[in-house]
Amino acid sequence: MNSSQIEEAENLTVAVLFADIFEYSKHTEFYEEETHQNLQTVLELARSLVDKNSGHVSRAHGDSILATFSNPLDAVYCAVEIHAATTRHNFNILEKHQLKFRIGINFGQVIYDNDNQPYGNTVNVAARLEKMANPGDIVISEHVYSELDESIPFACCYLGNAKLNNIENSVKTFKVIQHKRISDRWFDVTKRVFQIEAYKAYIFFGVAMTLMIVSILTLITALGLFNVFQDNYIAIKTSPYYVEPIIEEVDVEHKDKNRAYLYLISIAEDSIIENDFERAQEYLDKAIAIFPDKSEAYKKKIEILEIKQKNLVDYDDI
Predict the structure, then answer these.
(1) For the purposes of burial, counting CB atoms within 10 Å of the CB of 37, is it exposed (0-12), middle (13-18) or buried (19 or more)?
(2) Which residues contact 139 (CB under 8 A, 6 or more apart)?
(3) β partners of residue 218
(4) In this predicted structure, which of 99-103, 183-187, 299-303 has the lowest mean pLDDT?
(5) Angle at 203 between CA 199 and CA 207, to 5 degrees
(6) How far apart are CA 177 and CA 158, in angstroms?
(7) What is the pLDDT of residue 66?
(8) How many CA within 13 A on the CB side of residue 254?
(9) What backbone phi and psi angles, to 5 degrees, belong to 175?
(10) Taking a C-beta distance cutoff of 8 angstroms, is the pair 3, 57 a contact?
(11) pLDDT at 8
């Protein structure tokens, strides 16, 4: 939104961003010169990012900035970038000299006075939301949250219904969690840099990741790393300390024969008890045919002969 648009309008529906330096007075009290220099730098960073995200700096008093945007999404992106730029700036500064913004964002109708300054409940709520935020945080109202789509690379955490100072109705508030996933950061870069729609950005990101994986696998193959793994395995097998795993082989046919042999012996034993020696002899012969080297069948045959002999002797005595 530019200045000419503001002059033509008295009431507009805009997103209002209010940013303020946390504990600025305390920093000034102890480090006045360093704090003043840092303030000018971070305020200039904030102004440039507002312009970059199609916003307009309406007021900049002391350590605070009030900016307006035509839609809430631009305001949220601007707030995230302000925090990121401030963090980069603070990286090379001693912690005691570092300045951090707190940011509140609201969306609704505002009234412009003769000096093109926005006023009204929307501006007041944005200022109160800024007071709720911790250093480096962004707090938004329900009106802003409802305008955000699912493609944004940010998560929003519900803070609850807040009773704001001098605001009659409670306001549902949310905290913006910046960059919920690393993949979303790359998605955000893709969408913003190439200025493409959300679904196209996802496709672009997916294709890029696939090509990267294929390139890595190709590089590994070209360098012969797979062969290195194979050579290491061969070296282990040829080591004098390598023990080949023992694989127990079961002779199914032998197992079945042994079962049949024992079955025939058991029938022969039952037949001997019943004095059916012919049947016992028959099954013992079958058992010997299966395993000629085993002695059980022969022993049973000898047992039959002994029983027959005993029976003959007893019969002669009678």
Answers:
(1) exposed
(2) 103, 104, 105, 129, 130, 132, 133, 159, 173, 174, 175, 176
(3) none
(4) 183-187
(5) 170
(6) 11
(7) 92
(8) 3
(9) -105, 130
(10) no
(11) 47
Give the 3-state secondary structure of residue 77.
helix
Global confidence as pTM? 0.53
Q: What is the pLDDT, as a whole number, of residue 68? A: 92
d(CA 102, CA 130): 6
Partnered with residue 55 across adjacent β-strands are 69
What's the pLDDT tens digit per position in 245-280?
Answer: 544 444 445 557 777 778 887 887 877 777 787 888
Look at the block and give the residue holding tokens 């049973």.
300
Determine the distance from the C-alpha atom of residue 213 to the mean position of all C-alpha atoms in its chain, rounded to a whole number: 18
Cβ within 8 Å of residue 31, ≥6 positions away = 96, 97
- Phi and psi for 176 in degrees, rounded to 5? -85, 120
Residue 35 tokens read as 């704090």
Among 112, 88, 84, 83, residue whose Cα is nearest residue 16? 112
pLDDT digits (tens, 9 = 90+) for 41-86: 889 999 999 999 988 888 888 888 999 999 899 999 999 999 988 8
